[in-house]
Amino acid sequence: MTEAIHVDALVKTFGPTRALDGLDLSVRTGEVHGFLGPNGAGKSTTIRILLGLLRADSGSARLLGGDPRRDATELHRRLAYVPGDVTLWPNLSGSEVIDLLGRLRGGLNTKRRDELLERFDLDPRKKGRAYSKGNRQKVALVAALASDVDLLILDEPTSGLDPLMEEVFRQVIREEQQRDGRTVLLSSHILAEVEALCDRITIIRDGRAVETGTLADMRHLTRTSIVVGLAGPATGLDTLPGVHDVQIHNGTVRFDVDTAALDAVLRQLTTVGILSLTSQPPTLEELFLRHYDRTQADGEHQTRVAR
Amino acid sequence: MNSLTGTRALARLALRLDRVRLTVWVLGLAVMPMGTAANYLSLYPTEADLRAVSAVLANPSLVALSGPLFGVSIGGLTAWKIGVTEFILVGLMSLLTVVRHTRTEEETGRLELIGATVVGRYAPLTAALLVTALANLAIAVLITLGLLATGLPAGGSLALGLATGLVGMLFAAVAAASAQLTQSARAASGLAGAVLGGTYLLRAVGDTGPTWLSWLSPTGWALHLRPYAGERWWVAGLFIGIAAVFAIVAYRLVARRDVGAGLLPQRLGPAEASPALRSPLALAWRLHRGLLLSWTIGLALTGAVMGGAAAGIGDLQSPNQQLTDILTRMGGSNGLTDAFLAAIFGITGMVAAAYTVQATLRLRQEESSGRVEALLATPVGRLRWAASHLVFALLGTALLLAVAGVAGGLGYGVQIHDVGGQIGRLLGAALVQLPATWVLAGFGTALIGLAPRFSALAWAALIVSVLLVELGALFGLSEWIVDATPFAHVPKLPGSAFTVTPMLWLTAIALALGAVGLAGLHRRDVPVA
């Protein structure tokens, strides 16, 4: 399997701040790769190095088989980018920005552009200064998605989008997934988004990749929070493996369960009789906490726990 | 909460943000009149010296530049020499300050953050006006005290200080109104700046022709307040009245409009980009064209007015030695008119250099606003991107100078019935300024490449150059200091001999600085916040 992006032991410092601290990242051709981490973890810095905008202090980065800095011009013909913080020229209309960026990249698919404008419900005639944050984001998304490129680099692309538009975005990315050979690097701090779209995930924290693999590989890291109303007493629940923090209050039971143990726990509950049930997917923060719990328990190496 | 709640906190914030900028403005403006007066005291120690030099200053060309001389005294001479410069600069300071703390805050969205706290509707505008008023008050007081310290009469000293402060407050009020009209801060300052430039030209025309025109211009009123020449205090009332009108308009508009909106309508753009918008250069043209157009209009008007004023000099058929001496110091040596025109185009070169700096720094603005990121993620290389903006700094300035030269040639040529000949001559006089302006573009590029956070120092370089050339001789500075500025090496055309060597040197220096800057830009991280 070929790699669209290969990053090895990347280090980047800004004055006293160590933004990247030996980051490794490998994105295979044709996959949607989630680049997951909290704010300030170094996601945007990595992307800017991949785009040749920043120069790494040490380590190596390869992008589509080329050097991100030396071959920037040729590589940029084959990729499209949505910045994390989209700023537009105040006196250019949305369509002018979309068309300009597309043409600079060597042409854009106008049919696809019109379709995307329609789906994202964006008025392209407004001037840059008149757009809200979400609409600026849509302008950048349409500009990137309407180009026929090998690689899409999306830096927190749904920030500012409403849930309806987030769903449109997911559909569009799923369609991209169907098309052969198109690779997507999707940076995000929202686990659910990455979970819904990505083939593989790299989790980054404090400038280092802490985990990489498919989401299934990481199931052991995730717990689901469940609130359930039961017909009878929840006996023996807290003795089941993988169940944590059980609280019982007037027939309502709250607990966290390891994703791997979910099936067994639900079987147990149905024997008692379920009146109501809500489940909450694991959040990124929980996933991190889990990760650090694990590494500390294993005693593999010393880790800093979340501040 | 009343509509002024929070004014004090906002004013303190503005003072904090502007502590360096406003201090530099205030001290600079406060020192100039005192320095000029001190210098005249040593240059013209006797009544006879004064009389001789004053006789010379009545000629129309100098009147067009600086206004009429009202009083034959050290004070009168000082007010004449420094007055108009001070008025223009204080107007600029005030309008920029007001727009910075009103429309800029609004455009960037920072006002929204502040507006959601306990802040009254009128508080931001009031705070901006208060801070500007404070700066103008400081300037007025310091000018008065400085002039008193040199031993000039109290009445005149107060009048010159007052006139400067009042011009400042008038343009603060004009900017307060213009900031309500447009959505962009740049357009708001442009509008107020155009009013300022207009009043200067109106005064220049009025002082050389129909006097009533100069009574329509606030920069004219400031002179008609007549410091050191039988002060007419009632003129101050004109300022207060008109400033109040603009301020009332501004407050009315604030009350009526939404935050973030302007009164001038926001038009929709095209639904599809024009086929031409497909290169960095085409984008740069979109971003620069408005600025370039307004500068072109401004310099065309200025060139025509000054060219027309130059024709008046021919009427003055008794050039005495003193006048020739002064004009020689200002301009060249062959003929009064040529000397005047050479002085005018020398100033035009420095004014056009302000555009050069503005256009060069656009590069940095594109970077710090973050817009460059999306652009550089396309196959556009950074050198190509930089070049697309620098083209406007270099060739845009050439266009401006050419327009000023042609307009000057028309204005002058029509009056002396030699349009063809004068256009050619004055076009040359304007274009010789070009290499000096390019040095500033080169310096700006070097800053952007090597020390991007300090790129605003390009403005400092321009201001220092102007001060050294304009006031260097007056303050008796050593030749080599003045020679450090590019404008000291421009041949004084028309009149003097044209020498190509300094032009080549200036161009070479500009190119070298530019190359260093581009090399730095090529190597460094982008964007640097």
TrEMBL record, chain A:
Its main location: membrane. It comes from the Bacteria. One of its GO terms (molecular function) is ATP binding. Residues 5-231 form the ABC transporter domain. It holds the Pfam family DrrA1-3_C. It is found in: Cell membrane. Signal peptide: none annotated. SUPFAM superfamilies: P-loop containing nucleoside triphosphate hydrolases. Keywords: Antibiotic resistance, ATP-binding, Nucleotide-binding, Transport. It is a peripheral membrane protein. GO terms for biological process: response to antibiotic. GO terms for cellular component: plasma membrane. Belongs to the ABC transporter superfamily. This is Tetronasin ABC transporter ATP-binding protein.
TrEMBL record, chain B:
Signal peptide: none annotated. Keywords: Membrane, Transmembrane, Transmembrane helix. The keyword Zinc-finger does not apply. The chain crosses the membrane at residues 22-41, 80-101, 122-148, 154-175, 187-206, 233-254, 291-313, 339-361, 390-414, 426-450, 457-482, 502-521. The keyword Membrane applies. This is Exporter of polyketide antibiotics.
